[in-house]
Amino acid sequence: MSNRRLHYLIIPCSLAALLLFIGACQKRADYNNPLSNDTTKPGTITNVKVTNFNGGAYVTYDLPQSENILYVKANYTINDKTGATLETKSSYYSDTLTVNGFAEKKEYEVTLRVVNRANVESDPVTVKVYPDTPVYRVVAQTLAMTPDFAGVRVAGINRLQQNVGVVFLYNDPYFKKYTIRQQIFSNFREINFASRGFDTLPKPVAVYTTDQWGNHSDTIYKTVSPLYEITLDKSRFFEYHLGSDSPTDQYGWLTPYMWDGNTGSGWHTNQRVPYVLPPTTSFGLGVSAKLSRFKLWPRDGYLWGHGNPKTFTLWGSNAEQPGDFKPPMTAAEGTVIGDWVNIGNYRYPDPPSGNPPSAATDADRVWANQGTEFNVSFAAPRVRFMRVVVPENWGGDNTFAHIMELTFYGDPR
Hints:
There is one protein chain. The protein folds into three domains: 84 residues, Immunoglobulins (Immunoglobulin-like), CATH 2.60.40.10; 94 residues, Sandwich (Immunoglobulin-like); 181 residues, Sandwich (Jelly Rolls). The chain starts with a helix and ends with a strand. By secondary structure, it is mostly beta strands. It contains three helices and 25 strands. Helix content is 11%, strand content 41%. The longest helix is centred in the N-terminal third of the chain and has 30 residues.
């Protein structure tokens, strides 16, 4: 290579390195040093207006006439008991500042200052806000604890759909104090979960709500006696093929894969003509049991789509060898056909976030992949055999169905 060509290569590389160095120095200077040398104290905000909401307030204002303003900041105490404080900022492009996280429905003082590009602050302006009842307190008023199978069910409504934590506690005799047994944090409208693993003896339990700012409601105490329940032994399940069951030879996703403990495999009916409608499969539990609930795992990758069940029906029979029948598309709970009784009509829930199925969130997907729980009516009889009928899938064509895993709970005594 000639010296001349080498010269042309060195110049651009050296220039690029120099520009990068200058840019890095400039960035460092901007970060550490004021953006302006004008240290004149800025004027204060004027024409302040307050709009309160649950747990907070919007503060609108007029900025002073100056091109040197950087932002407006607010300082305020959110909890008088703990002394917790917050600082919120809003850029000079905005005329509104949001203050949030207040622990109670009461009057609070908020101090606002204008800050210029030389980090010089204006004189303070103090305004009073009166936030409505904070969301965590609104939710706490709706909470209830009731007996459930092998546990306690906690239910409530988060009508404002803001982030709220619900903390369930148990007075554990081992620790001799109330300890956290389970907690959730979400913005889902319906709060409904069960803490399980209890025997049937009376249990002292409690629940409270909290928020992202560390506020928490008063604790609700109750003594609850859980109902008897065990997980049915899947090793005793067996396929019980009936003539009206849907074929599964197209993909090799067979009925027994619904209880193999693997949510990556499952039952999948054929998608070719002639269809056997509605998609149906049958199996035995290996025991006569009074069912309490079950969990269903849909096919990941097609959540709220494809052949995942949207509506489905469970038929049960306690006969030693129940006969076949052609399942109807719909039937009322309790309907008896031959040896079989409809023990429940179900609809798989929409995404808990409230988004449409086509726009499910990551939180929705996490929720679905943990398995979705459905209750069986107390009025349902004991059963030895099950039929799963899927008249409607999330894909909308309703000609096929797939389920990855089923787990049943109940009392086989």
